[in-house]
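Example record

The entry below shows one chain as it appears in the dataset: sequence first, then structure tokens.
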Amino acid sequence: MTSIWTTQQPAMRVQWGTRPFEPDDAIGALRETLAALACCGAPFAGPWKLLDPSSEDADGSFVGDLTDDEVSLLIHRGVARNADGQPFPWDGYSVSLVGKLVGSVGASMRLHVGATVTEYIVNEVAVSLRAVQPGASMDLRQSYGEHHGEVLRRLVELWRADLR
């Protein structure tokens, strides 16, 4: 588990070892993760778009507008694949989300769950800020800085991250 806090480039990453996760099992934890991040304020408060991993040009759909079945479908599309392109669910599922820009800064999240093929840490949820223009930044001391500890603890609970 790592957490990096600066006023310029905050990031949270929770990693854990192998554990099966079906896409349907991840929906509730994903929605609760977004709710926990919202207490950090903009741009972590969303709204969040869940990108479609099967389409290079899709701009995504707002998670709050999607049913659980639609979220499950997008997570299913993010299944790991062998070199020949065949689905390989034992290596997990990956999805990416992007938050609404505030000025020239936005938040992004990468989720990789369900990998069981190795004993190494391979599953994670990682949240970070991104600047869409060079030098763009935000002062997050009153939002992210005050809440990042409680959010990090909540992420560990939601994803049952093994911290051994």
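Notes for this example: Strands lie at 2-4, 11-16, 48-50, 61-62, 91-99, 105-115, 123-131. The longest strand covers residues 105-115.
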